[in-house]
Design a protein that fits this description.
The complex is a heterodimer of chains A (388) and B (342). Chain A has 388 residues and is of the alpha+beta class. Chain A is built from 11 helices and 9 strands. Chain A has helices at residues 9-25, 37-52, 71-83, 92-105, 108-119, 234-246, 253-269, 276-304, 312-335, 353-363, 371-382; strands at residues 3-4, 125-128, 144-148, 151-158, 169-175, 186-192, 198-203, 212-223, 227-228. In chain A, strand 7 and strand 8 form a beta hairpin. In chain A, helix 4 (92-105) packs across helix 6, helix 9 runs antiparallel to helix 10 and helix 9 runs antiparallel to helix 11. Chain A is globular. Chain B is an alpha+beta fold and 342 residues long. Chain B contains 11 helices and 10 strands. The longest helix of chain B has 40 residues, at 179-218. Classes of the chains: A alpha+beta (388), B alpha+beta (342). At the A-B interface, strand 1, helix 3, helix 7, helix 8 and helix 9 of A face strand 1, helix 7, strand 10, helix 8 and helix 9 of B.
């Protein structure tokens, strides 16, 4: 039987277990933004609590603080997580991106060193991908890592590093072969943000919080043991990481289904503003989030039977990011003159969450590789159209 | 929870794709205009495709609606102009269930075709050569011989559809189901028809994206294939994304048992998603083909016009949207994470 769209008893029991734990443990109040010092600290405390409960990263092996769940169980976990309105994951760069990359490319020593503190919230990671002149064009990377005996000397600049202001470590790709061009001669390095010669300069995001940062490396000494994979293999590892980012892990359907559910409630509470356009947007939100969920389960089932996720990950990224933006835009329209009210204003609907969400949704089509780049990938690798 | 094609289903898809591409290239569509290809119909029957939903005891393949959905999707990819949905999807299971074995044999062997007269479809395709009609009403389902029907020809924009307004003077035929059972069957006929029409729309969308992609690889402008231009790539990528996210919606609807409480909304979602994907693919494809796409010379129009025809059948957009609306906006509706599956 290949189509069995019901949960097994085991899966139902797992759901009940997650639900019970979340009901006990999810903070009753929304935490401050994780892009502020106070919010970051509170989110780190939440990561520790999750880890203590054994829920930090359910798909990881037990040795690294996980519980060895399969992808369907992971989806169930995520459903319960968002159902309970649990806090956003401040550890997401580590657990969703670097974690899977380490499992695939790391040495046993690297896995043992980095995965446990990543899972328990002791070490929170930022990514150091982009540079001022290499955003979507990551092969244009210039930051250098020059080998000197048992370490590299790293110099250069990275930008758009989310949460680097408060994070402990960063991962990124650096040019280890000065004579190389494009995607050759790059290596994947893990660097503590506390290292001598590292300067992090915050960049205020649209909401005024220091969510982004620039990272400057001024002759930073990085042990060779902090290199993931072989020297010069950085590009292919980074592409695998980007695949995780665009694929299943970064954005589970539950998050968007929760937004659609809240949008329906908002629509009902604003009966006086319920235009045909608003109704159509609400119905579309439900249909799209449901389709996204179905597509994710469909992909997860195939992955579990041994298939590999390919350039289809780019379809995912386009779909969720544009759906999220549409849902928030619809909410802003429904709120009318109340849409501009920020968190903390007594009259703000849903305490300004839609406004926050709308601003965040605008970033979706940009980060993890702009949607324009994703469309090129689909056209060239899924459809076979010629490169320009 | 298992949501993927089995090896048998992958083989079925591959076999069906090879068969349809081989037997029904665009040249056949051009030859057929306005008519029905009996030779092709016999081949479809020989493949066993018409008996997919009939139990093995009566000579069918004993497979389920997902298998037929996959087959119809492949038929859509080549714009197959034959009434597979009406016969394999609607008539066969109904005749099998009612023990109409003589007619069932005829349909499965390809020696006779049956039309289905249902309130959701005002004009019936390929009625001229049908040997019988299944009349679906809420309270009774019956079989009428072709002689009892009056047909009036109407023209469809799709040159491969041969439409008639069908009427009959009185109920001369045999009532096979009455009362509640008939109501239940009428609903199931509608559900299957809407799901299979959605599957055909998926296939049509895929066919148009493939066709437009091939054209974009070879057609040169400014000294380069037009498919190397980002503007065109993005159009085609958008159509591809829409299709990829419509497919599991249709498969889910096909996989749900008709008794599931969510069946109507799942079917509505499937028909809407596939219809959107197909309309979008049609508009994208004509943009890629440019002026050529606006002519009768390009094959694209066969696909495009079928999409327009199928959009309004077995529940149009308004019908399915209001079903969705009743579900989504109901008090205490089961929305949000964890509600997609049972």
């Amino acid at each position: 039987m290949s189509f069995d769209l019901t949960y097994t008893d085991r899966q139902k029991a797992f759901r009940a277990e997650v639900r019970a734990w979340m009901a006990e443990n999810v903070p009753g109040q929304r935490l401050p933004s994780l892009d502020t010092a106070e919010g970051f600290a509170q989110h780190r405390a939440w990561e520790r609590r999750l880890h203590a409960g054994g829920w930090s990263m359910v798909t990881w092996p037990r040795d690294y603080g996980g519980r060895g769940c399969d992808l369907i169980e992971w989806l169930i976990f995520e459903e319960e997580y968002y159902r309970a309105e649990a806090p956003l994951r401040v550890s997401q760069n580590g657990i969703f991106l670097l974690g899977p990359t380490l499992m695939e490319f790391g040495t046993p020593e690297q896995k043992a060193r980095f995965l446990p503190p990543m899972a328990n919230g002791d070490e929170i990671w930022a990514q150091a991908w982009s540079e001022p002149n290499a955003g979507s064009d990551m092969a244009a990377i210039r930051a250098r890592a020059v080998r000197e005996g048992d370490h590299y000397v790293v110099s250069g600049q990275k930008i758009w590093s989310s949460r680097a202001v408060f994070a402990d470590w960063c991962f990124g790709i650096f040019r280890t072969d000065p004579a190389s061009r494009r995607h050759k001669g790059l290596s994947f390095l893990l660097i503590p943000l506390s290292a001598k010669g590292v300067t992090v300069r915050p960049i205020e995001q649209l909401d005024g919080d220091p969510g982004f940062a620039e990272i400057f490396f001024d002759d930073v000494k990085v042990p060779v043991g902090n290199r993931l994979g072989a020297e010069g293999q950085g590009w292919s590892i980074a592409m695998a990481t980007a695949g995780f980012e665009r694929g299943l892990m970064l954005r589970s359907p539950a998050r968007f289904q929760k937004t659609a559910e809240r949008l329906v409630a908002l629509y009902k509470s604003r009966a006086d503003r319920a235009t045909p356009e608003a109704k159509a947007a609400v119905l579309r939100a439900w249909q799209e989030t449901e389709a996204y969920c179905l597509n994710t389960y469909y992909t997860a089932s195939r992955l579990m039977s041994g298939a590999a996720i390919g350039p289809e990950a780019s379809c995912n990224k386009i779909f969720w990011s544009e759906m999220d933006r549409r849902m928030h835009r619809a909410a802003m329209a429904l709120m009318g003159a109340f849409a501009e009210l920020e968190e903390g204003t007594p009259e703000a609907i849903d305490d300004g969450r839609w406004l926050d969400g709308y601003m965040f949704s605008l970033a979706g089509p940009i980060y993890a590789g702009t949607n324009e780049i994703q469309r090129n990938i689909i056209a060239e690798r899924c459809l076979g159209l010629p490169r320009s | 929870m298992e949501f993927r094609l089995s090896q048998d289903q992958k083989d079925l898809v591959e076999g069906a794709a090879a068969f349809f591409v081989g037997e029904c290239p665009p040249a056949v569509l051009r030859r057929l205009e306005g008519g029905m290809c009996e030779e092709l119909w016999s081949k479809v029957a020989q493949m066993g495709f018409l008996g997919i939903l009939a139990p093995e005891e009566v000579g069918g393949l004993g497979l389920d609606l997902i298998d037929l959905t996959l087959l119809v999707e492949q038929a859509g990819r080549v714009a197959l102009p034959l009434p597979v949905v009406e016969n394999a999807g609607l008539a066969v299971p109904l005749l099998a269930q009612c023990g109409e074995s003589e007619l069932l044999d005829k349909v499965m062997s390809g020696s006779g075709r049956v039309i289905v007269v249902h309130p959701a479809v005002p004009f019936v395709n390929h009625a001229e050569q049908a040997c019988a009609a299944i009349i679906c009403k809420r309270e009774r389902i019956g079989v009428l011989p072709a002689a009892a029907l009056r047909l009036e020809k109407v023209n469809s924009i799709d040159p491969l559809r041969s439409l008639s307004r069908v009427s009959y003077d009185a109920w001369h035929g045999k009532e096979v189901l009455v009362g509640e059972a008939a109501g239940e069957m009428e609903k199931q006929v509608f559900t299957r028809a809407a799901v299979l029409t959605a599957a055909e729309l998926l296939g049509l969308a895929a066919g148009m994206i493939e066709m437009a992609t091939e054209y974009a690889k070879t057609r040169e402008q400014f000294g380069k294939p037009i498919g190397s231009f980002q503007a065109l790539k993005h159009h085609l990528a958008n159509a591809f994304v829409k299709l990829e996210f419509a497919r599991p919606v249709v498969y889910r609807a096909a996989a749900l048992s008709p008794q599931t409480s969510k069946i109507d909304v799942a079917v509505a979602h499937a028909k809407l998603a596939a219809g959107d994907a197909a309309c979008f693919a049609a508009e994208t494809a004509i943009q890629v083909f440019g002026g050529m796409g606006y002519t009768y010379e390009a094959d694209l129009h066969f696909w495009m016009k079928r999409v327009w025809a199928l959009q309004g059948l077995w529940g149009d957009r308004d019908f399915h949207t209001s079903r969705l609306e009743r579900y989504v906006l109901a008090d205490g509706a089961a929305l949000g994470p964890g509600q997609t599956f049972e």
